[in-house]
Each structure stands twice: as C-alpha cells, then as structure tokens.
C-alpha cells in the first residue's frame, strides 16, 4: 500500500483507492461552489446516465481527464435560483449562458 504525505493527503488516498467516489465528490464540489442548490446526488445520477446533450443531441464525451471541448458534458443550472436545468454539451452551455446574459441585460 502506498504511503501518502504532504498537502491533500486525504484526496490523494481517495483518488488512488476510490477513484469513482473521488471524482463524484470533486464534481459535486465544483457544482455547489458555482451555485447549484438542487439535490447534488440526484443531479449526479442524471449526469452519469446522460449520453447526449439535452439541447442539440450531440454524443457527450465523458473523458474527465482532459481540457473541456465542445462535446464535454456539463451540468446546466440557473445562476439566479441555483436550480438544475439539464445536462448539456459545453458548446450549448456556453451559448445558453450568452443568451441568458443578453436577455437579462435590458428591459425588453
């Protein structure tokens, strides 16, 4: 069994011995930090089961060990209410964010 020392010993051990739990906790931590208020475990289960973007239908690339691309899977939520909306590809999520910002800019 490897010996871990230094900063973040618990994370190093968890990543080595329980990678699925490590990545779940890491992803949920990011979501909560960005404002998700919906039940994180329920959203994570939906996240894992989703294979295609809920908006454009592109097959999602679920490789978690790389820089985000257009087909990366992301959790979309309302930034004002914190409510989960759906699972999108990175491209659609960015476009939705730009659309929401445009709509909320002025009184139309």
Short description:
With 108 residues, the protein is mainly α. It has 4 helices and 2 strands; from the N terminus they run H-H-H-E-E-H.
Task: Give a written overview of the molecule.
The chain has helices at residues 9-17, 19-33, 40-49, 90-105, and strands at residues 73-77, 84-89. A two-stranded antiparallel sheet has the order 1-2. Strand 1 (73-77) and strand 2 (84-89) form a beta hairpin. The mean pLDDT is 79. The chain is mainly α and 108 residues long. It has a single domain (9-105), classed as His-Me finger endonuclease fold.
Task: Write out key terms for the chains shown.
single chain; 4 helices; globular; mainly alpha; His-Me finger endonuclease fold; 108 residues
**Biggest β-sheet description:** 2 strands, antiparallel
Q: What fold name goes in the CATH topology slot?
A: His-Me finger endonuclease fold
CATH architecture: 3-Layer(aba) Sandwich
Beta-sheet strand percentage? Answer: 5-15%
Q: Which of globular, elongated, flat, extended, rod-shaped describes the shape?
A: globular
H/E element order:
HHHEEH
- In which range does the helix fraction lie? 40-55%
Give, in spatial order, the strands making up the sheet with the most strands.
Answer: 1-2
User: Count the helices. How many?
Assistant: 4
User: How many strand elements?
Assistant: 2
């Amino acid at each position: 069994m490897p010996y871990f020392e230094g900063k973040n010993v618990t994370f190093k051990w968890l990543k080595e011995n329980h990678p699925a739990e490590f990545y779940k906790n890491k992803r949920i931590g990011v979501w909560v930090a960005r404002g998700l208020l919906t039940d994180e475990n329920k959203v994570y289960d939906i996240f894992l089961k989703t294979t295609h973007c809920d908006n454009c239908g592109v097959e999602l690339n679920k490789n978690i060990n790389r820089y985000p691309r257009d087909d990366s899977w992301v959790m979309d939520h309302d930034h004002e209410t914190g409510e989960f909306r759906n699972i999108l590809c990175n491209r659609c999520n960015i476009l939705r964010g730009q659309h929401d910002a445009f709509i909320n800019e002025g009184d139309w």
